[in-house]
Amino acid sequence: MSSTATTERRLRQLAEALAGKRRLLILTHDNPDPDCIASGWALIKVVRKVAGLKADLAYAGIIGRAENRTLARVLRVPIKPIEAVDLDDYDAFALVDSQPETGNNSLPAGTPATVVVDHHPCRDATRAAAFYDVREEYGATATILSEYLDAAEVKVEKKLATAMFYAIKTETLNLGREASRADAKAFFRYFPIMDNEALSQIENPPISRAYFRMIDQAIEGTHLFGDVAITRLGEVNNPDMVAQFADLMVRMEKIEWAVTIGRYGKDLLVSARTNLPLANAGRVIQQVVGAEGKAGGHGMMAGGKIPGGAETPKLANELERKMKARALELLGAKSRGVRLVPVRRSRS
Protein backbone atom coordinates (compact mmCIF):
# COMPACT_ATOMS: atom_id res chain seq x y z
CA MET A 1 0.00 0.00 0.00
CA SER A 2 1.36 3.45 -0.92
CA SER A 3 2.12 6.00 1.77
CA THR A 4 -0.71 8.21 0.48
CA ALA A 5 -3.20 5.35 0.68
CA THR A 6 -1.98 4.52 4.18
CA THR A 7 -2.45 8.11 5.31
CA GLU A 8 -5.93 8.26 3.77
CA ARG A 9 -6.83 5.08 5.66
CA ARG A 10 -5.55 6.62 8.88
CA LEU A 11 -7.67 9.71 8.29
CA ARG A 12 -10.75 7.54 7.89
CA GLN A 13 -9.89 5.83 11.17
CA LEU A 14 -9.41 9.22 12.81
CA ALA A 15 -12.83 10.36 11.60
CA GLU A 16 -14.40 7.14 12.91
CA ALA A 17 -12.77 7.64 16.32
CA LEU A 18 -14.28 11.13 16.52
CA ALA A 19 -17.71 10.24 15.14
CA GLY A 20 -20.48 11.49 17.40
CA LYS A 21 -18.15 13.64 19.48
CA ARG A 22 -19.18 17.17 20.33
CA ARG A 23 -15.86 18.97 20.77
CA LEU A 24 -12.18 18.01 20.91
CA LEU A 25 -9.50 19.40 23.20
CA ILE A 26 -5.98 18.94 21.85
CA LEU A 27 -3.28 18.92 24.52
CA THR A 28 0.42 19.44 23.93
CA HIS A 29 3.03 18.22 26.35
CA ASP A 30 3.65 20.57 29.26
CA ASN A 31 5.83 23.61 28.53
CA PRO A 32 5.28 23.18 24.78
CA ASP A 33 7.94 23.34 22.09
CA PRO A 34 7.57 24.16 18.37
CA ASP A 35 6.85 20.55 17.38
CA CYS A 36 3.80 20.09 19.59
CA ILE A 37 2.57 23.64 18.98
CA ALA A 38 2.63 23.24 15.20
CA SER A 39 1.27 19.68 15.36
CA GLY A 40 -1.65 20.72 17.55
CA TRP A 41 -2.48 23.61 15.23
CA ALA A 42 -2.38 21.31 12.22
CA LEU A 43 -4.62 18.77 13.96
CA ILE A 44 -7.25 21.47 14.49
CA LYS A 45 -7.39 21.92 10.71
CA VAL A 46 -7.40 18.19 9.99
CA VAL A 47 -10.24 17.20 12.33
CA ARG A 48 -12.35 20.08 11.07
CA LYS A 49 -11.88 18.80 7.51
CA VAL A 50 -12.25 15.04 8.01
CA ALA A 51 -14.65 14.92 10.98
CA GLY A 52 -16.40 18.30 10.87
CA LEU A 53 -15.40 18.74 14.50
CA LYS A 54 -14.45 21.91 16.35
CA ALA A 55 -11.21 21.58 18.28
CA ASP A 56 -9.22 23.76 20.65
CA LEU A 57 -5.52 23.65 21.51
CA ALA A 58 -4.24 24.01 25.08
CA TYR A 59 -1.11 23.53 27.13
CA ALA A 60 -0.07 23.35 30.78
CA GLY A 61 3.00 24.98 32.28
CA ILE A 62 4.51 27.88 30.39
CA ILE A 63 5.83 28.66 26.94
CA GLY A 64 9.23 29.50 28.33
CA ARG A 65 11.80 29.73 25.57
CA ALA A 66 11.95 33.14 23.87
CA GLU A 67 11.78 31.59 20.39
CA ASN A 68 8.66 29.62 21.29
CA ARG A 69 6.87 32.62 22.77
CA THR A 70 7.70 34.59 19.65
CA LEU A 71 6.41 31.78 17.43
CA ALA A 72 3.06 31.74 19.25
CA ARG A 73 2.76 35.53 19.15
CA VAL A 74 4.00 36.34 15.63
CA LEU A 75 2.11 33.49 13.95
CA ARG A 76 -0.98 34.02 16.13
CA VAL A 77 -1.20 30.35 17.01
CA PRO A 78 -4.65 29.53 18.46
CA ILE A 79 -3.23 28.03 21.67
CA LYS A 80 -4.29 28.85 25.20
CA PRO A 81 -3.27 27.84 28.74
CA ILE A 82 -5.28 24.96 30.11
CA GLU A 83 -6.54 27.22 32.91
CA ALA A 84 -8.44 29.17 30.24
CA VAL A 85 -10.55 26.20 29.13
CA ASP A 86 -13.41 24.39 30.83
CA LEU A 87 -12.71 20.67 30.55
CA ASP A 88 -16.43 19.94 30.88
CA ASP A 89 -16.93 21.50 27.44
CA TYR A 90 -15.11 18.57 25.80
CA ASP A 91 -16.03 14.95 25.26
CA ALA A 92 -12.89 14.02 23.33
CA PHE A 93 -9.20 14.58 24.10
CA ALA A 94 -6.13 14.37 21.89
CA LEU A 95 -2.44 14.32 22.76
CA VAL A 96 0.18 15.55 20.29
CA ASP A 97 3.91 14.92 20.74
CA SER A 98 3.04 13.20 24.02
CA GLN A 99 1.33 10.06 25.26
CA PRO A 100 -0.82 8.96 28.21
CA GLU A 101 0.90 8.24 31.53
CA THR A 102 4.16 9.95 30.59
CA GLY A 103 3.88 12.55 33.34
CA ASN A 104 4.48 15.40 30.89
CA ASN A 105 0.94 16.38 29.91
CA SER A 106 -2.26 17.48 31.60
CA LEU A 107 -4.70 14.89 30.33
CA PRO A 108 -7.11 14.69 33.29
CA ALA A 109 -6.52 11.69 35.53
CA GLY A 110 -8.81 8.81 34.62
CA THR A 111 -9.68 10.36 31.26
CA PRO A 112 -8.83 8.18 28.26
CA ALA A 113 -7.19 9.83 25.28
CA THR A 114 -9.37 9.64 22.18
CA VAL A 115 -6.50 10.50 19.82
CA VAL A 116 -2.71 10.23 20.21
CA VAL A 117 -0.19 11.36 17.58
CA ASP A 118 3.49 11.19 18.49
CA HIS A 119 6.98 10.19 17.35
CA HIS A 120 8.34 8.85 20.65
CA PRO A 121 8.36 5.13 21.53
CA CYS A 122 4.79 3.83 21.84
CA ARG A 123 3.58 3.19 25.39
CA ASP A 124 1.12 0.53 26.45
CA ALA A 125 -1.40 3.13 27.66
CA THR A 126 -1.43 4.70 24.18
CA ARG A 127 -2.87 1.53 22.65
CA ALA A 128 -6.08 2.11 24.59
CA ALA A 129 -6.83 5.26 22.57
CA ALA A 130 -9.60 5.09 19.99
CA PHE A 131 -7.04 6.31 17.45
CA TYR A 132 -3.28 6.45 17.75
CA ASP A 133 -0.51 7.05 15.26
CA VAL A 134 2.96 6.71 16.77
CA ARG A 135 5.94 6.66 14.42
CA GLU A 136 9.24 6.41 16.23
CA GLU A 137 11.12 6.43 12.93
CA TYR A 138 10.02 10.02 12.24
CA GLY A 139 12.08 12.93 13.52
CA ALA A 140 9.09 15.16 14.31
CA THR A 141 5.41 14.79 15.10
CA ALA A 142 4.79 17.71 12.72
CA THR A 143 5.89 15.46 9.86
CA ILE A 144 3.04 13.05 10.62
CA LEU A 145 0.60 15.96 10.65
CA SER A 146 2.07 17.25 7.40
CA GLU A 147 1.02 14.00 5.74
CA TYR A 148 -2.45 14.38 7.25
CA LEU A 149 -2.78 17.92 5.91
CA ASP A 150 -1.82 16.81 2.41
CA ALA A 151 -4.06 13.72 2.38
CA ALA A 152 -7.01 15.75 3.70
CA GLU A 153 -6.32 18.42 1.05
CA VAL A 154 -6.18 21.17 3.66
CA LYS A 155 -4.89 24.44 2.25
CA VAL A 156 -1.87 25.41 4.34
CA GLU A 157 -1.46 29.17 4.63
CA LYS A 158 1.80 30.98 5.37
CA LYS A 159 1.52 31.12 9.15
CA LEU A 160 0.86 27.41 9.60
CA ALA A 161 3.50 26.57 6.98
CA THR A 162 6.02 28.62 8.96
CA ALA A 163 5.13 26.85 12.19
CA MET A 164 5.42 23.43 10.55
CA PHE A 165 8.74 24.27 8.90
CA TYR A 166 10.22 25.62 12.13
CA ALA A 167 8.97 22.60 14.09
CA ILE A 168 10.74 20.14 11.80
CA LYS A 169 13.81 22.38 11.58
CA THR A 170 14.28 22.57 15.34
CA GLU A 171 13.25 19.01 16.18
CA THR A 172 15.70 17.49 13.68
CA LEU A 173 18.40 20.18 13.88
CA ASN A 174 18.00 21.11 10.23
CA LEU A 175 17.46 17.45 9.26
CA GLY A 176 20.73 16.46 10.93
CA ARG A 177 19.28 14.66 13.96
CA GLU A 178 17.11 11.55 13.60
CA ALA A 179 15.52 12.85 10.41
CA SER A 180 13.74 10.49 8.03
CA ARG A 181 13.01 10.87 4.34
CA ALA A 182 9.49 11.90 5.33
CA ASP A 183 10.89 14.70 7.50
CA ALA A 184 12.95 15.99 4.59
CA LYS A 185 9.94 15.86 2.28
CA ALA A 186 7.82 17.89 4.70
CA PHE A 187 10.67 20.32 5.38
CA PHE A 188 11.05 21.17 1.70
CA ARG A 189 7.28 21.10 1.20
CA TYR A 190 6.92 24.14 3.48
CA PHE A 191 10.12 25.99 2.62
CA PRO A 192 8.72 27.79 -0.48
CA ILE A 193 5.49 28.92 1.19
CA MET A 194 6.58 29.90 4.70
CA ASP A 195 7.00 33.50 5.89
CA ASN A 196 10.75 34.22 5.95
CA GLU A 197 10.34 37.49 7.83
CA ALA A 198 8.30 35.79 10.55
CA LEU A 199 10.85 32.97 10.74
CA SER A 200 13.64 35.50 11.25
CA GLN A 201 11.73 37.09 14.12
CA ILE A 202 11.17 33.68 15.70
CA GLU A 203 14.80 32.65 15.42
CA ASN A 204 16.20 35.96 16.68
CA PRO A 205 13.96 37.10 19.54
CA PRO A 206 14.96 39.50 22.33
CA ILE A 207 16.48 37.44 25.16
CA SER A 208 15.91 38.26 28.81
CA ARG A 209 18.73 39.29 31.12
CA ALA A 210 17.77 36.36 33.33
CA TYR A 211 18.87 34.03 30.55
CA PHE A 212 22.34 35.56 30.46
CA ARG A 213 22.61 35.26 34.23
CA MET A 214 21.61 31.62 33.88
CA ILE A 215 24.45 31.05 31.40
CA ASP A 216 26.89 32.03 34.13
CA GLN A 217 25.10 29.73 36.58
CA ALA A 218 25.17 26.84 34.09
CA ILE A 219 28.87 27.17 33.33
CA GLU A 220 29.76 27.29 37.02
CA GLY A 221 27.56 24.25 37.68
CA THR A 222 29.11 22.05 34.98
CA HIS A 223 31.57 19.24 35.67
CA LEU A 224 33.28 17.23 32.93
CA PHE A 225 33.84 13.48 33.20
CA GLY A 226 35.76 12.64 30.06
CA ASP A 227 33.21 12.90 27.25
CA VAL A 228 30.27 13.43 29.64
CA ALA A 229 29.14 16.88 30.87
CA ILE A 230 26.92 17.02 33.97
CA THR A 231 25.30 20.37 34.78
CA ARG A 232 23.45 21.24 37.98
CA LEU A 233 21.60 24.48 37.29
CA GLY A 234 19.91 24.94 40.64
CA GLU A 235 16.77 27.08 40.46
CA VAL A 236 15.56 28.05 36.98
CA ASN A 237 12.91 30.63 36.16
CA ASN A 238 11.41 28.57 33.36
CA PRO A 239 11.54 24.81 32.78
CA ASP A 240 12.71 25.09 29.16
CA MET A 241 16.12 26.22 30.39
CA VAL A 242 17.01 22.70 31.49
CA ALA A 243 16.65 21.34 27.96
CA GLN A 244 18.10 24.50 26.45
CA PHE A 245 21.35 24.15 28.37
CA ALA A 246 21.58 20.45 27.58
CA ASP A 247 21.39 21.48 23.91
CA LEU A 248 24.22 23.95 24.52
CA MET A 249 26.50 21.67 26.54
CA VAL A 250 26.39 18.77 24.08
CA ARG A 251 27.93 21.08 21.48
CA MET A 252 31.11 21.41 23.55
CA GLU A 253 34.16 19.90 21.86
CA LYS A 254 35.05 16.36 22.96
CA ILE A 255 31.66 15.95 24.68
CA GLU A 256 29.37 13.09 23.61
CA TRP A 257 26.75 13.27 26.38
CA ALA A 258 25.26 16.21 28.29
CA VAL A 259 22.97 15.72 31.29
CA THR A 260 21.42 18.85 32.81
CA ILE A 261 19.47 18.99 36.07
CA GLY A 262 17.41 21.94 37.32
CA ARG A 263 14.81 22.85 39.91
CA TYR A 264 11.58 24.49 38.83
CA GLY A 265 9.09 25.18 41.59
CA LYS A 266 8.80 21.97 43.60
CA ASP A 267 9.86 19.73 40.72
CA LEU A 268 13.22 18.39 39.66
CA LEU A 269 13.81 18.36 35.90
CA VAL A 270 16.48 16.57 33.90
CA SER A 271 17.42 16.58 30.21
CA ALA A 272 19.89 14.45 28.30
CA ARG A 273 21.44 15.09 24.90
CA THR A 274 23.95 13.09 22.90
CA ASN A 275 25.60 13.43 19.52
CA LEU A 276 25.88 9.66 19.10
CA PRO A 277 23.34 8.66 16.40
CA LEU A 278 22.93 5.08 17.66
CA ALA A 279 22.46 5.99 21.33
CA ASN A 280 19.22 5.65 23.30
CA ALA A 281 18.88 8.78 25.41
CA GLY A 282 15.30 7.86 26.30
CA ARG A 283 16.35 4.64 27.99
CA VAL A 284 19.25 6.36 29.75
CA ILE A 285 17.10 9.13 31.18
CA GLN A 286 14.45 6.67 32.38
CA GLN A 287 17.12 4.88 34.41
CA VAL A 288 18.61 8.15 35.64
CA VAL A 289 15.23 9.29 36.96
CA GLY A 290 14.41 5.82 38.26
CA ALA A 291 11.28 5.03 40.23
CA GLU A 292 11.19 8.54 41.71
CA GLY A 293 9.76 10.13 38.56
CA LYS A 294 8.84 9.74 34.90
CA ALA A 295 10.91 10.20 31.77
CA GLY A 296 10.88 9.62 28.05
CA GLY A 297 12.53 10.47 24.78
CA HIS A 298 14.27 8.76 21.91
CA GLY A 299 17.71 8.25 20.46
CA MET A 300 19.56 11.53 20.88
CA MET A 301 17.38 13.58 23.23
CA ALA A 302 15.27 12.89 26.31
CA GLY A 303 13.84 14.48 29.42
CA GLY A 304 12.36 13.57 32.76
CA LYS A 305 10.73 14.99 35.86
CA ILE A 306 10.55 14.08 39.53
CA PRO A 307 7.40 15.78 40.87
CA GLY A 308 8.08 17.19 44.33
CA GLY A 309 11.78 16.43 43.94
CA ALA A 310 12.68 20.00 44.84
CA GLU A 311 10.25 20.27 47.75
CA THR A 312 13.20 21.08 50.03
CA PRO A 313 16.84 21.94 49.24
CA LYS A 314 17.97 18.85 51.15
CA LEU A 315 15.74 16.52 49.11
CA ALA A 316 16.76 18.17 45.84
CA ASN A 317 20.46 17.82 46.67
CA GLU A 318 20.04 14.14 47.55
CA LEU A 319 18.14 13.37 44.35
CA GLU A 320 20.54 15.38 42.18
CA ARG A 321 23.52 13.48 43.58
CA LYS A 322 21.70 10.20 43.01
CA MET A 323 20.81 11.08 39.40
CA LYS A 324 24.35 12.27 38.71
CA ALA A 325 25.80 9.00 40.01
CA ARG A 326 23.35 6.94 37.93
CA ALA A 327 24.14 8.93 34.79
CA LEU A 328 27.88 8.52 35.21
CA GLU A 329 27.55 4.78 35.77
CA LEU A 330 25.20 4.29 32.82
CA LEU A 331 27.40 6.32 30.49
CA GLY A 332 30.58 4.59 31.62
CA ALA A 333 32.28 7.83 32.68
CA LYS A 334 35.47 6.66 34.36
CA SER A 335 37.52 9.82 34.65
CA ARG A 336 37.45 11.98 37.74
CA GLY A 337 35.27 15.02 37.25
CA VAL A 338 36.74 18.46 36.75
CA ARG A 339 34.97 21.79 36.76
CA LEU A 340 34.35 23.40 33.40
CA VAL A 341 35.68 26.63 34.91
CA PRO A 342 37.86 26.99 38.02
CA VAL A 343 36.31 28.16 41.28
CA ARG A 344 36.36 31.93 41.33
CA ARG A 345 38.24 33.42 44.24
CA SER A 346 37.11 36.72 45.68
CA ARG A 347 39.53 39.60 45.32
CA SER A 348 40.81 41.23 48.48
Automatic annotation (TrEMBL):
It comes from Eiseniibacteriota bacterium. This is DHH family phosphoesterase. Transmembrane segments: none annotated. One of its GO terms (molecular function) is nucleic acid binding. Residues 228-324 form the DHHA1 domain. Residues 24-168 form the DDH domain. It comes from the Bacteria. PANTHER family: BIFUNCTIONAL OLIGORIBONUCLEASE AND PAP PHOSPHATASE NRNA.
